[in-house]
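Lecture notes, unit on protein representations.

Consider one protein chain, 457 amino acids long.
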Amino acid sequence: MASYKPSVPKGTRDFSPTEMVRRNFIFDTIKSVFRKYGYQQIETPAMEKLSTLTGKYGEEGDKLIFKILNNGDFLSDANINRSNFIDDSKKLTSLISEKALRYDLTVPFARYVVQHQNEITFPFKRFQVQPVWRADRPQKGRYREFYQCDADVVGSDSLLNEAEFVMIYDEALSKLGLKDFTIKINNRKILSGIAYIIDKSDSIIDLTVAIDKLDKIGLDGVTKELMERGFTAADIEKIKPVILLEGSNAEKIESLRLALINSDIGLKGCDEIETVLNYIANLPLQTANLELDITLARGLNYYTGAIFEVKTNEVAMGSIGGGGRYDDLTGMFGLSGLTGVGISFGADRIYDVMEELSLFPAASNQSTRLLICCFDKEGEKFALPILQQLRRKNISAELYPAGSKLKKQLDYANNKHIPFTIIIGSEEIESGLLTIKNMETGVQEKRTVEDILESFV
């Protein structure tokens, strides 16, 4: 029998203790900023009903939803001619799968709001840090299982929320050590206005999906895709100057107002962008560049107003955050007219960026600050009350079990990046003065338990 080589599915990963310390550093930093802005944490199940998720992400997104097979022999009781499903797998899927792994955190959040609407105080500001799953092709920075860090506010149409999300991105990513990143902003109403002026309002999704790819496939690629979707050469000539807008944010808005003068919805989008920019003018950013980018569409059906995307300029990487406003996402679940806006941090990509730029603090490699080493059972017995005192002071400490050579114990400390050790032998037990060693410098000194406790708190 061939030996089995253990592995994980493509697009998924194990995380070592060091990686988990670093990941939690990212999560804790982002959560602290969310809380500072008044957001409260919730969690939703890993799986949702397939009907909850289907139809919310566009045709391309629906294909990437991981379906879960029903329990048991799901075809045994069905009188089906299986050959009928060879060319239409969607029909088969509806019979064998009623659940799916969540694709993002926004749609489950909308479901949560509707289900718990009588318990919620509106506007409801929530954040969520959980994994999501997408049946995508794995590549650098793109995984099939990855964490999202989402914040949404639902029940408020104030554009101050959009401005605060820009501030949250700026503050959290600055705290993580990023020094050059761009927050791109657009408005779906502007894209609707562009579709209106070429009389293609019914093809808004086709338009946005195509121009969203401008940075990947270039103008020629976008032109080809639009032509394939029924747009004419005249249409493309009309929208080309808008897609290729240049200048400052204020100059871009001015140009857009001229181009969209006959579109009320397009002009409303310009007003909304301008309002957000005016808020930010009074709330100066620490690090981020804020850029109006008309090609930003994000391809998702549920955005109706502002659209966000965040990119680092220090590393070749896809977006590390994104989001937008949705006027009636909860309407899909029977609660109409409740507007919301939200953003997401791509924690896995942020990790890769920080690792490449060596941004993790040295302390993030450590979990234990102090290791007690002893030579024998008598030393171990003497060490236990000291260990308890350290932990009661919230000092992360370990006691290496007696019986191993001192070199092995010190190697353990070095391999775990533990910065200090206490060495206890017969001399220390007799005098009450403990030998504390700085593992980085090698310096040793004798100190009382009280001194050590005081210096570590």
